TrEMBL record, chain A:
Chain positions recorded as Ni(2+) binding sites: C68, C71, C372
Cofactor: Ni(2+); Fe cation
Residues the record lists as binding Mg(2+): E49, V339
Translocase recorded as keyword: no
Protein name: Nickel-dependent hydrogenase large subunit
Alphabetically ordered keywords of this record: Iron, Magnesium, Metal-binding, Nickel, Oxidoreductase
Residues binding Fe cation, per UniProt: C71, C375
Residues annotated as domain NADH-quinone oxidoreductase subunit D: 122-378
GO molecular function, one term: oxidoreductase activity, acting on NAD(P)H
Length: 409, 341
């Protein structure tokens, strides 16, 4: 019954067709308009960091593949970078290029997957089927290179586990040409379609200033006009040798309002950019090995002795992905491993961009930052009365002090 | 005796409505799937779905109003089927043929009112579910209904008015419409008007049936099914059946208004054979109408916001409808003026 007075409360989640992963939104509604937004993540916490801190770095590397089903290589790459810094492992140049090629194919498949999800959220299922059919090609190429469609398992500390040889280039080139041919069609379907433009333009606006203040990353911040991309700001892998520019929404003549439409522009044109980057990589790839240390036993010995802390970041398809690792030189497992995925930075933007919008736009706005809850969730609060409540900093501090006491006893 | 034939007519037409409606939904799903590069479900899928729903429990939410919640699907189904009693199914007319004596006193105006009843029942059921999703869906359904009723009324009134100008006694009667296809009555200006009205009717159909782009009351990704979110089991089956019957009714209405021709006079058949052939031909026409106004539209468009639905129907379609009506009036005046000269 609608006996609830306006504003009424509309819960979305933890399980809802608009959400691909569990998260709980509570909206204060006035008719069809959102007045206030509240959300509580923590429904997809799997204790991956806890598991990692009981394993050796090579095992963690493969655990990293499983943090997220879409950006599998991003987490593994950033973790490898952090550990390589601590243990002073010299990565062969060729491995950098292999890493870059995989990372860019991952970006292509992630962005096209997102485009399909966005179309579905808008109720445009035909485009959803089309996008996911197109995506298959990049997944096929990733399988051709790594042997797996998801959880690639190609990263290794000090390089990669497989090489991309010259005789594999024709297959990669074929995929790139496939995407080049379709790009115009994609631009036409997503950006020139009347219904999509009607739904996405001036929806979920995140201004440049607020994007900066909320510390958003990746396509979300670039769509608001912030020129930031880890690949250019602090180059890793082979990105330092390559020539490419940050994609901003003005590539398609948008004035950079930072709406959902701009986020579609950025993602679609980043697919184009990735094609270009992979081409450059294939052209410039140096000869040589792809792995610094082939013997695992020796590698593990070295890692056990390594001590220090490192912090690495990469540009995952969704934005900046950071890992912090600390090793003490006494045990195999790292003393500390912290994962900060891109959605962690982007999720606070929801409160901003959902306010004042209609119910109809909630799904597409929520999806527009390409959220990944399984990357983000670090904690799940379980209480006997079923109410998680709000954890203040003081409360968390008291809990950790209590736990330290318990461990010491 | 008359009572018996009436009962037989009711049962037969109800069965026809259910079977034809589910068949149409199956065809629609296959057409849409093929356009989306998918295989799609088998033609029997809607029947299987209904059978499965009928076997399941109907869950009534704790904060629902059970009487209203359970009555809504029955009212919706009954009214959707009732519309079919008043529509000609091929050459089986509501009046004059021996079988369905029930529709004798109905005309287009009654059909228009009956078409709103399933939607009203769904609104009542939605409000009675006690879920915020269903409440929002019910509000949206009401708004959608208000939006599309006016263009629909324009289309129907304009055509009936033109028939009245032609000197026909009962322009709103279904038999009159079936016997005098509008295209043969109007002149060249009227034909343009009729095409505009056909466009209006084709656009009213997705809204009437809550299909994309006007499926805002159900909106899977927004409201997880909206009005129907709390419905399950038998109640949901009844709503699905009423949707199926409504699909036949809406497409049948378009066929009646714009394509009422039959095949049997051309083939020179009569009797039961003719009725059978015409019924199949009617189904074919219904499939064509449904393909263009439901399947094709839902494949090529994204869902509208509710305010877009209102501005589209009240702004654009009402304008197109009024222009169409104006052209038809102009056509009527030209022709009658011609008679006087």
């Amino acid at each position: 019954m609608s006996q609830k007075k306006a504003p009424y409360e509309l819960p979305i989640g933890p399980i809802h067709p608009a959400l691909k992963e569990p998260i709980n939104f509570t909206f204060q509604m006035n008719g069809e308009v959102v007045e206030k937004v509240n959300f509580s993540p923590g429904r997809a916490h799997r204790g991956i960091e806890w598991m990692g801190m009981r394993r050796n770095p090579v095992q963690i590397l493969h655990l990293c593949d499983r943090i997220c089903g879409i950006c599998g290589v991003a987490h593994a790459l950033v973790f490898a970078q952090a550990v390589e810094q601590i243990a002073d492992i010299e990565v062969p140049d060729r491995a950098y290029y292999v890493r870059t090629i995989i990372a860019e194919f991952e970006r292509i498949q992630s962005h096209i997957l997102w485009a399909g999800v966005a179309a579905h959220e808008l109720g445009f299922d035909t485009l959803f089927y089309l996008a996911w059919q197109i995506r298959e090609e990049s997944v096929d190429v990733i399988e051709y290179i790594t042997g797996n469609r998801v959880n690639y398992g190609i990263m290794m500390l000090g390089g990669t586990r497989r090489d991309i040889t010259v005789d594999m280039f024709p297959r990669l080139e074929q995929a790139l040409q496939y995407y080049e041919g379709l790009l115009e069609k994609m631009v036409n379907l997503f950006l020139n379609d009347k219904t999509i433009a009607m739904r996405c333009k001036n929806t979920g606006i995140l201004t440049k200033r607020r994007a900066l203040e909320l510390a958003t990353v990746g396509p979300t911040s670039r769509a608001s006009g912030l020129a930031m991309d880890v690949r250019i700001d602090s180059p890793y892998a082979a990105y330092g040798d390559l020539d490419f520019d940050i994609v901003l929404p003005d590539v398609y003549g948008s004035d950079g309002t930072g709406d959902v439409y701009d986020r579609i522009i950025v993602r679609i044109f980043e697919v184009k950019q990735s094609i270009d980057i992979i081409r450059q990589c294939m052209k410039q790839m140096p000869e040589g090995p792809v792995l610094a240390e082939e013997k695992y036993a020796k590698l593990l010995m070295n890692l056990k002795k390594a001590s220090g802390e490192a912090f690495a970041r990469v540009e995952a398809p969704r934005g900046e992905d950071m890992h912090y690792v600390r090793m003490n030189g006494k045990q195999e497992a790292p003393e500390m491993w912290k994962v900060k995925a891109s959605t962690y930075s982007n999720q606070m933007a929801w409160v901003e961009i959902l306010q004042g919008e209609q119910i109809a736009d909630i799904p597409i706005i929520v999806a527009s930052i390409d959220p990944c809850m399984s990357c983000t969730d670090r904690v799940a609060v379980v209480s006997t009365d079923g109410d998680a409540g709000i954890m203040t900093k003081e409360h968390l501090h008291r809990l950790s002090v209590e736990k330290t006491r318990r461990l010491q006893a | 005796m008359e009572l018996l034939t009436t009962i037989a007519g009711v049962v037969l037409i109800t069965l026809f409505g259910i079977i034809a409606g589910l068949f149409l939904i199956g065809v629609d799903r296959i057409c849409a799937a093929r356009m989306q590069m998918r295989q799609g479900p088998p033609l029997t899928q809607p029947f299987t779905d209904i059978r499965k729903l009928l076997c399941k429990d109907s869950v009534v939410p704790a904060n629902a109003i059970p009487s209203l919640f359970n009555a809504a699907p029955i009212v919706a189904f009954a009214s959707a089927v009732t519309v079919l009693f008043y529509l000609p199914l091929g050459s089986i007319l509501p009046v004059g043929t021996p079988l369905p004596m029930i529709g004798e006193y109905g005309d287009l105006i009654l059909i228009m009112y009956l078409l709103t009843v399933p939607a009203l029942a769904m609104v009542a059921g939605g409000f009675a579910s006690g879920s915020p999703y269903a409440s929002v869906g019910a509000q949206r359904e009401m708004v959608t209904m208000i939006a599309y009723e006016f263009p629909l009324a324009i289309a129907i009134v304009a055509i009936a008015w033109r028939l009245a100008v032609e000197g026909l006694v009962m322009p709103f009667s279904v038999n009159t419409l079936a016997a005098n296809p509008i295209w043969t009555v109007v002149g060249p200006v009227g034909i343009i008007g009729c095409i505009l009205l056909l466009i209006v009717l084709a656009w009213v159909t997705p809204a009437e049936l809550s299909r994309i782009p006007c499926d805002t009351p159900e909106a899977e990704t927004e409201l997880c099914g909206g009005l129907l979110v709390e419905y399950s089991g038998r109640n949901l089956a009844l709503f699905s059946l009423s949707m199926a019957a409504k699909l036949v009714a809406m497409a049948g209405l378009a066929v009646l208004l714009f394509f009422p021709w039959n095949l049997s006079p051309v083939l020179g058949m009569s009797g039961v054979m003719a009725a059978g052939v015409d019924l199949i031909f009617f189904l074919l026409k219904v499939i064509v109408v449904m393909f263009f106004s439901v399947s094709l539209v839902r494949v090529v468009m994204a869902r509208f916001r509710i305010n877009t639905v209102v501005s589209l129907y009240w702004g654009w379609l009402t304008t197109i409808g009024l222009i169409g009506m104006f052209l038809i009036i102009l056509d009527g005046s030209i022709l009658s003026a011609g008679c006087f000269l």
